[in-house]
Design goal:
The chain is mostly beta strands and 123 residues long. The protein is 0% helix and 59% strand. The protein has no helices and 11 strands. The strands form 2 sheets. Strands 2, 4, 5, 6, 9, 10 and 11 form a 7-stranded mixed β-sheet that branches. Strands 1-3-8-7 form a 4-stranded antiparallel β-sheet, with no helix packed on it. Strand 9 and strand 10 form a beta hairpin. The chain is elongated and about 50 Å long.
Length: 123
């Protein structure tokens, strides 16, 4: 089994910064990619940023230039640094592990979602 712990959410004024962390533990041999998603009230969940095990990254257009994502493979932890926050960034942010393989003989893998952390940006 795999456990996900998200942290770093909170209330911040527009223009401020927050750093979210997502730490995975348990039976993990490898993880293909880790992503941060967000869901605002009344809206669909959307990808914010993702990073592969090799370090390739992908960002939503709305956060490019403001957010960065980094990964510590040894700790199975991903960080989302959010700068120049805007009120429209307000949402619940979720961490997702894309294709976790539990051991070398695991050829299927599975995905895991975190419980979410609230980010509120006041104007």
């Amino acid at each position: 089994q795999v456990q996900l712990v998200e942290s770093g959410g909170g209330l911040v004024q527009a223009g401020g910064s927050l750093r979210l962390s997502c730490a995975a533990s348990g039976r993990i041999f490898s993880i293909n990619a880790i992503g941060w998603y967000r869901q605002a009230p009344g809206k669909q969940r959307e990808l914010v940023a993702a990073i592969t095990s090799g370090g390739s990254t992908n960002f939503a257009d709305s956060v490019k230039g403001r957010f960065t994502i980094s990964r510590d493979n040894a700790k199975n932890t991903v960080y989302l640094q959010m700068n120049s926050l805007k009120p429209e960034d307000t949402a619940v942010y979720y961490c997702k592990l894309h294709r976790v393989y539990s051991d070398p003989a695991d050829f299927t893998g599975r995905d895991y979602w975190g419980q979410g952390t609230q980010v509120t940006v006041s104007s």
